[in-house]
Write a structure and sequence with these properties.
Helix content: 55-70%
Largest sheet: 2 strands, antiparallel
Strand content: under 5%
Shape: extended
Number of helices: 19
Structural class: mainly alpha
Distance between the termini: 119 Å
Length: 546
């Protein structure tokens, strides 16, 4: 055993001396060498070699790029994984749209226009469907809304039209060529709708740090809800509560200011939506379902009220039963059907057609104008009612993808604005009841709480008077009226004619204001109006007469 140990020591000495000789002959390089004393033991040599091996292993780990960068690459890898997940989600979403929502591939899907319209509607329902309180949206919901609505709106970037443009050649001559630009209606309205979208989300964010009102769950006992308990049909909404002495003056003014701002956003969204719907063609299926004349559509009583010599739309609506949503929608459907019938008869050239009538063209045009006036008042007074049969039919059979996106986007913004308006009304109602306990026993009618009116008998009602706030005032815009002559009342006419002319003038000015609003919203997002729009009158108003 001792003999074997001596042989192993001799072998190690010879190898180490050989290594030392190699280092001495290496030529001017300063390299550390190991010298072994004859008296060193085998155990000391083994310990020294193990230390050298461990040091070399540690140095090798420090020089390994994978181990050194593993921690730094973690955020990059997570971002890449998230991007890949978003890409897969977007592919799945557009695959469903291309198949017309028929994932079986059986060819039974809807049109691309209707699929996009449904996608925007469903996205808004999932994000804003439970916006039951005046509070900011969560960061997750806000990010999801912004990401997915951008996916759906990016389709409009590829809906283009050819326009004339000038190109300068190398020899200095100018030639006219055709270039593609985004279609005019999309170029005007998509930026405006994006701005309205951002304004509504910012309005909700403004309620982040409020502490003057709170909400009681719908499942809470009546003792907690107190006198502000909901007595309308929306029983599932939480009940707004305010302090025992009501809101402070600053909080009340803040809520009223936010209400005015949302009101103007609602008007702008309604104007864009009404304009897009008016540009859609009336489907043949809807026309085939109509009666042959306007009297059959309206009924004898309504027809006589519209065709009288002196017509007052406010008096007409006061005689109608508008106590429920169903009755308002039924009146709207009847009037829209009669308008379509009268318009077709005015454009009908074949006198032998079944659409022919003995009523003169002038009278039929007058009746159609009166019906459109009633429709406009109904839309402004009751913005929360469902869509009419004509609107649903247009959306269902529309094949224009650009119009489908504009209609659905403006409709969901209109719905969100109305929801925020209703939540503000809830808080103002709770404040009013707290300060006026005698009013607590009365039942609320949400159909009458419109943006044009304030909450029931408030101290500071937000009436739509000449000095009321508009979106132009809120944004700091200054519009000059081009219709100063329309303010002058005609002399020598009866009171009824003067009243009707004033109403028509007011509606025309409101349509012009909506057009200016859309153009101004485009300007504030730094989109330059192209030169080929200079000779156009902008987006046609749904009630404009040519």
């Amino acid at each position: 055993m001792a003999r074997a140990l001596e042989q192993e020591q001799e072998s190690l000495r010879s190898r180490l001396f050989h290594f030392k000789g190699m280092n001495e002959n290496s030529g001017g390089r300063h390299v550390k060498s190991l010298s072994v004393d004859d008296s060193c033991s085998f155990e000391q040599l083994r310990d020294q070699s193990e230390k050298q091996q461990s040091a070399s292993v540690s140095n090798g780990n420090e020089k390994d790029p994978k181990s050194r960068l593993s921690k730094d690459d973690a955020p990059v890898a997570q971002a890449k994984d998230k991007q890949n997940a978003d890409m897969e989600q977007m592919k799945e979403r557009f695959a469903k749209l291309l198949l017309g929502e028929d994932m079986s591939g059986g060819g039974k899907g809807v049109s691309s226009a209707l699929a996009l319209s449904n996608a925007i509607t469903n996205l808004a329902a999932s994000v804003f469907g439970e916006q039951w309180r005046l509070e900011p949206m969560s960061a997750e919901r806000k990010a999801r809304w912004r990401k997915e609505i951008d996916w759906l709106l990016c389709v409009t970037d590829y809906i283009v039209e050819f326009v004339a443009s000038q190109q300068k050649s190398k020899d200095g001559s100018n030639m006219e060529i055709m270039v593609t630009r985004q279609r005019i209606d999309l170029h005007m309205n998509i930026p405006a709708l994006r701005k309205l979208d951002a304004m509504l989300i910012d309005c909700l964010d403004n309620f982040k740090d409020q502490n003057e009102f709170y909400y009681v769950s719908r499942d809470a006992p009546d003792s907690e809800k107190g006198s502000t308990k909901r007595k309308d049909d929306k029983w599932w909404l939480p009940t707004a509560k305010v302090p025992s002495n009501g809101l402070s003056e600053a909080a009340r003014k803040f809520l009223q200011y936010q209400k005015d701002c949302v009101n103007q956003v609602l008007k702008a969204a309604m104007a864009i939506n009404a304009n897009v719907l008016s540009e859609m063609e009336v489907p043949e299926n809807y026309i085939e379902s109509l009666p042959k004349n306007g009297r059959a559509s309206l009924g004898d009583s309504i027809y006589r009220s519209i065709t009288v010599e002196f017509f007052d739309p406010d008096q007409f609506l006061s005689t109608m039963d508008l106590s429920s949503e169903h009755k308002i929608l039924d009146l709207k459907n009847r009037i829209e059907a009669s308008i379509v019938i009268w318009k077709r008869k005015m454009n009908q050239k074949d006198g032998k057609s079944a659409w022919g009538s003995a009523v003169s063209l002038e009278k039929r045009e007058l009746f159609e104008e009166r019906a459109e006036t009633i429709l406009l008042i109904l839309k402004q007074r009751f913005p929360g009612i469902p869509q009419s049969s004509l609107d649903i039919s247009k959306i269902q059979y529309n094949r224009d993808i650009g119009q489908a996106i504009l209609e659905s986007y403006s409709r969901i913004l209109e719905s969100l604005a109305y929801t925020v308006m209703s939540r503000i009304e809830d808080v103002l109602y709770a404040d009013y009841v707290t300060r006026n306990p005698s009013y607590a026993g009365q039942k609320r009618n949400p159909l009458k709480e419109t943006p044009q009116e304030s909450t029931p008998p408030m101290d500071d009602p937000a009436t739509e008077g000449p000095n009321s706030m508009t979106l132009s005032d809120f944004m700091g815009w200054n519009f000059e009226s081009n219709d100063t002559e329309a303010k002058k009342e005609p002399a020598g006419n009866s009171d009824e004619i003067v009243k009707e002319d004033n109403l028509n003038s007011k509606l025309v000015k409101e349509d012009n204001s909506n057009l200016k609003l859309t153009e101004k919203l485009v300007n504030i997002v730094n989109i330059k109006k192209p030169s080929y729009l200079e000779n156009l009158g902008g987006v046609r108003s749904p009630t404009a007469r040519h």
